[in-house]
């Protein structure tokens, strides 16, 4: 397989995961409204799993170096683009669900979620060497802030489900996954800091 096709693998996985979520919703829902609600939920889950790979890739490689973690880290940009694709499918699914049900979302959700989409678009458009060089330190700030903001929206959405008995199981599965991914990044940060301190002491 060529290097080009390897590069496309994360985006292909994101596409297949999102398409599977939509197909499963279409097959499981009893009517159009239920199908659209399930599609909004399940496309968010598919995109969360892709997000977790992009968010944890560098930390996993720092903590558990291997050929596989190095490969995933090298493809971090493609995992990020895969997440942008998957979350665009979530946007299409939720617009369809809201149109069909006529439900309104609270203003806070529209502002918080809408801003996440602005960041996702900005990050996707600048996920290339030329933008990285041109933006310099601003690129790091955009991507550093953006990825943690998106993490927060996922965590906030899933943690919010813990208070609702009907949706508690979803919160119990996905909120700890978000916390675990943050934990990995913190442990990797500590490991790198220790290595730097040791190196400067020698
Ligand atoms: C204005 C923007 C957004 C709107 C209007 C919106 C709307 C929705 C809707 C209608 C659902 C289905 C709710 C249900 O029936 O349980 C949903 C689920 C969800 N959305 Fe979005 N969303 C937005 C943006 C986002 C963003 C940016 C993220 C993450 C970064 C996100 C993460 C989630 C999660 C985690 C779920 C729950 C999935 C589950 O139950 O497993 N959403 N959203």
Summed up, the domain count is 1
| Record field, number of beta strands | 0
Order of helices and strands: HHHHHHHH
> Helical region count?
8
Return the structural class: mainly alpha
Mean pLDDT across residues: 95
- Please estimate the helix content: over 70%
Keywords: Membrane, Signal, Transmembrane, Transmembrane helix
Transmembrane segments: 48-68, 80-101, 107-125, 146-163, 169-188
Signal peptide: 1-23
Short synopsis of the structure:
With 202 residues, the protein is an all-alpha fold. The protein has eight helices and no strands.
Salient structural properties:
202 residues; mainly alpha; 87% helix; globular; binds protoporphyrin IX containing FE
Structure report:
- The chain has 202 residues and is mostly helical.
- It has helices at 3-28, 32-63, 67-74, 76-101, 107-125, 129-135, 137-160, 168-201.
- The chain has eight helices and no strands.
- The mean pLDDT is 95.
- It binds protoporphyrin IX containing FE.
- Protoporphyrin IX containing FE is lined by residues 37, 40-41, 44-45, 48, 90, 94, 97-98, 105, 109-110, 113-114, 116-117, 150, 153-154, 157-158, 170.
- The chain crosses the membrane at residues 48-68, 80-101, 107-125, 146-163, 169-188.
- Keywords: Membrane, Signal, Transmembrane, Transmembrane helix.
- Residues 1-23 form the signal peptide.
